[in-house]
Specification:
Elements (H helix, E strand, L loop, with lengths): L2 E5 L4 H14 L6 E4 L19 E2 L2 E2 L5 E2 L5 E2 L7 H7 L3 E4 L5 H16 L3 E7 L16 H10 L7 E5 L9 H7 L3 E4 L2 H4 L12 H10 L4 E5 L4 E5 L5 E5 L1 H7 L1 H5 L6 H12 L3 H13 L8 H17 L4 E2 L1 H7 L7 H11 L4 E2 L2 E3 L9
Parallel strand pairs: 1-2, 1-8, 2-7, 8-9, 11-14
Antiparallel strand pairs: 3-6, 4-5, 9-13, 10-13, 11-12, 14-16, 15-16
Helix pairs in contact: 1-7, 3-4
Length: 368
């Protein structure tokens, strides 16, 4: 028995897919997870998604689908979390090739369906931005989700659309996301988060990190991203809902616009028309800016002092938690320094580590 899970947005959605696979289906047969190699600039300094030509060591599954085994490596200067995911999780990670547009991804799916004959096909999105129209002011990264939605709607096989952690990506208002959800499929628990707990020790995904945190019972307000977006961690955080695939396509203007695209450039052009921007343009601009920033040394005394200042400001905003990715951005550190910063903070203040988040206490005790 083989299952196929499409990680709608790549990145953390692939980790969530592994978690959901065990929660929904058990751990006897692991799914094939079709996902982008598209990590944020903290991991991959090259803007946009990676394709098969950006890796060595891939293994062919079909004529146009390659798996990413543990021994695969991204070709410098590119980076990718997929080889390490493959090393630490029992699932097969197959690579979405978005450079041939929605039609290319649909072809990949058709080939996988013919090759695997899966017992189920799920399209999984953490947060719910796959349900966006495209013109929402809070929407930041619609392109990947719209592409997978457009491709899945063209596959000659039943595909179930699942939204996990509604609102945790901060892309759409929580009430709006909830109004679009269908039946409750699962409420994740701490036991469900356990299979990916080691991965979330190093993986920088904020939305999936918060999904696991809410499954473990963590509640409060988590500040994320470079802009400091506040996300509420509530009892709805660990829920998984089904959404009608056709309803999602009818709502998602960008997905409808790119149905017949055959290149990523076409997809970007439609994104600029529908949404007013391409998120890859944002990455290009940010990468150019980061390139000119001086390196910051990991000096414990200085960093802890800067952390205290940030926490005091965050506390005044009602923030109770944050992510190591956000702290890395706030302290103007590079992505390569994230792990060192994380180790420093946990060693210095272990009581603040609420895996995989960093806790900001309501009050700070006087050390004297």
């Amino acid at each position: 028995m083989t299952r196929l899970i499409v990680a709608a947005g790549g990145g953390g959605d692939a980790v969530a897919a592994a978690m959901l696979d065990v929660a929904l289906y058990g751990d006897e047969d692991q799914a094939v997870i079709l996902t982008y190699a598209w990590d944020r600039l903290l991991v991959d300094p090259v803007p946009g998604p990676r394709g098969p030509s950006d890796f060595t060591g891939l293994k062919p599954l079909t004529a146009s689908v390659w798996s990413v085994p543990a021994e695969a490596r991204p070709i410098a200067p590119a980076g990718s979390t997929l080889p390490r995911l493959a090393a630490e999780l029992p699932h097969t990670f197959a690579l979405i090739a978005p450079h041939r547009g929605a039609e290319g991804i649909a072809r990949q799916l058709e080939e996988l369906v013919g090759h695997l004959e899966p017992t189920s096909i799920d399209l999984l999105d953490v947060g719910g931005d796959v349900l966006a129209r495209g013109d929402e002011p809070t929407l930041k990264s619609p392109l990947a989700d719209a592409l997978t939605l457009a491709a899945c709607c063209q596959v000659n096989a039943p595909v179930r659309l699942l939204v996990a952690g509604p609102g945790l990506d901060g892309e759409l208002p929580v009430d709006e996301v909830h109004s679009l959800l269908g039946p409750l499929v699962q409420t994740l628990t701490a036991k469900d988060a356990e299979p990916v707990s080691a991965v979330l020790e190093w993986h920088p995904s904020e939305a999936t990190g918060m999904l696991a945190a809410t499954a473990r019972g963590i509640r409060g307000i988590c500040e994320v991203r470079d802009a400091g977006l506040p996300i509420r961690l509530t009892d709805t955080g660990p829920t998984v809902h089904e959404v009608d695939l056709d309803d999602a396509l009818n709502r998602n203007e960008l997905a409808r616009a790119i149905l017949s695209t055959t290149t990523l450039d076409e997809v970007e052009a439609h994104s600029r028309e529908v949404c007013g921007y391409s998120e890859i343009d944002y990455e290009r601009n940010k990468a150019a800016w980061l390139k000119d920033q001086p390196a910051v040394k990991l000096d414990p005394h200085t960093l802890l002092s800067q952390l205290d200042e940030f926490e005091n400001e965050a506390r005044s905003r009602g923030v109770t938690h944050t992510t190591f990715r956000h702290i890395t951005e706030v302290l103007n550190l590079s992505g390569s320094q994230r792990d060192g910063l994380r180790q420093l903070l946990i060693a210095s203040r272990p009581e603040r580590y609420t895996a995989p988040l960093w806790r900001i206490p309501a009050e700070v005790s006087d050390p004297t």
